[in-house]
Specification:
The protein is mainly alpha-helical and 157 residues long. Helix content is 59%, strand content 3%.
């Protein structure tokens, strides 16, 4: 059953949650600067898009919009044979698709682990309206980012 078949829950992890998390990654921040933007600018645009798309806003909803990068990376890079741990959160189908795409992007950098750059590239290809509108507003594309992420990934430890 797809995302549209069930009622949204505050524990759901959506693509825009992943974007918020990935904007805290140092490499992603450097990649965005090299592309002529900044994580702060992208986050402001994401917040504007999110608020514009929301029917109602309450304090509890605003406080529950995030998931941290450490949780995301631990879940997509679990210890051998361990199941991903999302800390009680549930992935939407769109988020699951993004994470599968990020796993496939590991081959770009010949690394065994997914990092923020892989997540950024997967997000840049997202069809999620909040995420795609955010990148579009800054003229950011996966094609331009891919070369930068590859280069920055070679520098990463």
């Amino acid at each position: 059953m797809g995302d549209t078949g069930r009622v949204a829950d505050r524990r759901d992890v959506h693509p825009h949650h992943l974007l918020r998390a990935v904007l805290t990654d140092a490499m992603v921040r450097d990649v965005l600067v090299e592309l002529g933007s900044s994580a702060g600018e992208v986050l402001l645009t994401l917040d504007r898009e999110w608020l514009a798309a929301s029917d109602t806003i309450d304090l509890e909803e605003i406080e529950s919009v995030g998931i941290d990068l450490a949780t995301v990376l631990a879940a997509v890079n679990p210890p051998f044979d361990a199941p991903p741990d999302w800390g009680g959160r549930r992935l939407t189908d769109a988020t699951r698709d993004l994470l599968v795409r990020s796993l496939g992007l590991r081959g770009l950098t010949q690394g065994p682990r997914v990092h923020g750059g892989h997540l950024l590239l997967a997000l840049m290809a997202s069809k999620d309206h909040l995420v795609s509108a955010t990148f579009r507003a800054h003229g950011l594309s996966g094609k331009a980012a891919r070369t930068v992420v590859e280069r920055w990934s070679r520098r990463a430890p």
